[in-house]
Design a protein that fits this description.
This protein is mainly β and 121 residues long. The chain is built from one helix and eleven strands, in the order ββββββββαβββ.
Length: 121
């Protein structure tokens, strides 16, 4: 599983999270005490930030064709990746889409990706 977003540690467990002022929203895929269903398979609980032991941003990075990328998503053996090398000629040669000014993304076959790792920022 690739992750790109906030993660909080609360009462000894790690949750997907999002900071919300003085609170932190914790998310989990199943029902739980104090968690409200926001959509099927997604439950949220809001806790004071002071109760959270740790709140970090987790990003999954990799190398594809020798170039650095962030992994944004995965689907059926493919990874949605964003180039972090900042060199337009490289992005063009790799046939990446210009997602925004200076932001290049594409789909990489998961079996061609190396150095897949999580980084906490």
């Amino acid at each position: 599983m690739t992750r790109d977003g906030y993660v909080a540690r609360w009462q000894g467990r790690e949750y997907q999270a999002s900071p919300d002022g003085d609170d932190v929203r914790l998310y989990q895929p199943q029902p739980g005490e104090g968690f409200a269903e926001v959509r099927p398979g997604r439950y949220v609980r809001v806790v004071p930030a002071t109760e959270v032991d740790d709140l970090v941003y987790v990003r999954t990075t990799c190398t594809w064709q020798g170039q650095p990328f962030i992994v944004l998503a995965e689907h059926d053996g493919w990874l949605r990746v964003e180039y972090t090398g900042g060199r337009w000629p490289v992005a063009r040669a790799m046939r990446l889409e210009a997602f925004d000014f200076g932001v290049y993304q594409g789909w990489a076959p998961a079996n061609e990706v190396a150095d897949l790792r999580e980084q906490r920022v």
